[in-house]
Specification:
87 residues; mainly alpha; membrane; Multidrug ABC transporter ATPase
Length: 87
């Protein structure tokens, strides 16, 4: 459907998103670490609920992956704010 009015429609940018590989890698890494951390935490809680011996790797995964994922997500927010201010 074409615009037949005498006033052109405003252009809000192109339809293709800007390709920013470092931000994409940062986002995928943050999500992957968050999933690994949550799965590790779930394994620790289920093992403790069943009164079993918790494997130290699950504890380390929960202790390390969740905070690192949180920091990476904060960096994503800061990066997004900086990108919007430049535009």
């Amino acid at each position: 459907m074409e615009n037949t009015s005498p006033h052109p429609l405003p252009d809000h940018g192109s339809n293709t998103p800007e390709r920013n590989l470092p931000r994409l890698i940062l986002m995928v890494t943050a999500v992957a670490l968050a999933i690994i951390g949550l799965l590790s935490l779930t394994a620790v809680l289920i093992t403790a609920f069943l009164q079993g011996t918790v494997w130290p790797g699950f504890v380390a995964g929960a202790y390390v992956c969740l905070p690192v994922a949180f920091v990476l997500m904060i960096l994503m927010v800061i990066s997004g704010i900086r990108a919007r201010r430049r535009a």
